[in-house]
Give the backbone structure.
Amino acid sequence: MLTRAPIWLQALKSPGAGAFATLFGLESSARAVLATLIVVDLQHMTGSAEGTSLVFFAVAGFGLCANFAIPHITRRIGRRWVYTGGGLCLILASLLLMAQTLPLQIAGMALRVFGVVCFNICLNLYILDTLRGQALNRLEPLRMLAAAIPWCFGPALGVQLAASAAHWVPLAVSQVFTVILLVYFWILRAREDSPLPVMRRPPPNPLRHIWSFLSRPRLRLSYAIAITRSTYWSMLFTYGPIYCIETGLGGVVGGYLVSAANFFLFGAPVIGLLGRRYGVRRIIIAGFCCTAAGALAAAAFAGLPWVGAACLLLGAFGAFMLDVTGNLPFLRMVRPSERQTMTPLFATYREFSDCIPPGIFSILLRFFPLPVVFLTTGLAQAAAAVYALRLPRRL
């Protein structure tokens, strides 16, 4: 009797969108389990939100430089070796983080960021070289589902394992997922129908197209929307756990806060439906209003820990709405012939959103208490809501 393989097993065997989603899910699993644990450890080592901000600012700045360096490295040694090197960096980073000393913590965080940049750039290049049309449309929901599961459970699981078992356990779990990722990657490379072809053309040099990108108002608008909505996630992932620690809720609750914020990802189809019915422009504006309200309310009720945490979750719902729709202005307003050259520049919004806020917050936290982080974030989100009014009404 013929039997049909489960959907997840078919995805593993698929030479196209399913394989890319699986790679993305394994990478997310390796990263998510350490996302909050790194913040909690660093906060204990530095002893202050200001010190933690300075470290994150320096590490994110290193990641931003790496983002522009990886295309040059890829031209020289090939993307398969850059991708593999990214995995080895994640494994080595986890080993350094086991030491629980500030210098090795910073070195481990820097290696981790470098590995993630390697993964992101190489996987995007493979996708652009392989998938077209409807295959790209099938990839996005698969990628979101592959990311939702590890990011919903990983942050809480990491801090819980470190607290109840041993500190090295979540770090070992991350290493296991990274090894599985690399093994699966090379299995795909060895297949005749591999979705990971030999590089057909060198990756574009993003530095050559900066002026062309910035000279177009609609691309600037789409970039501002992307970087501002990503800023909320950057703030929540770093300062949400710090807030829980400083208010007495503890680092474990901080992990559960980050995990709870990611559960909204499962509602992506609903937001997609609302976007098609009411327009992407309205969803984006509503999302920024929600993130602004959540952050400003968290600043106002910071003295009530559980209320403040709930307000941050309200803002996370708005950030989730923006995750579903926030990249669409760029995809619709960039010329198809320029996607290959403009996409690497647009993708730097992640590194900038990880770099700029900690730099600003490290200065503000020298003079003000932690709620200033929520207040500043709320004002930035409100300004983005006003700026988003410039989006075309037909969007």
Observations:
- The two ends are 50 Å apart (CA to CA).
- Residues 134-164 form the longest helix (31 residues).
